[in-house]
Amino acid sequence: MFERFGDLPLHVLVIHAAVVVLPVAALTAIVFALVPKWRWLLRWPALLLGIAGLVVAFVAKKSGEAFLAAIPELEPAVKLHQDRGDLLFLFVIGFAVLVVAAVLLLAGPSALASGKGAKATKSRPLEWVLSAAVVVVGVLVIYQTIRTGDAGAKAVWDGQLPPK
After folding, report:
1. Which of 14, 30, 92, 104 has its CA 20 to 30 A from that of 5?
2. Residue 9: is its pLDDT beyond 90?
């Protein structure tokens, strides 16, 4: 199921989605956590991007495993990439959980002029801790996405590009 899309390995295609979706999801969630007056606007995008990031990371992980199973001699070359991808997937799971919690628990104004639908603050310390957790894990997701992609690119292209 995770081996191919047409004639191409699925992993080669889905990693490009991961490189875009994960940082955008993290940045959206960070702004959602840090700017309460924008929460009415970012609540749904943060939730959808957080879940999409989890799906994309899962498919990237499974398709990478399928790609490696099909060509096992690549294992030494992609070991670092695989290890970083496994850590990234753990970060993304935590990030998705935090985003769902933030969307449900963080206060914010309504988009309606009447104010109907505004979410009140239930606990100020909870809001601070949850916002800080979203920011920290969001930054970790961005950082680990870059590290994972870098290791994968070096595994594929190192020594194959013409000299400068």
Report:
1. 92
2. no
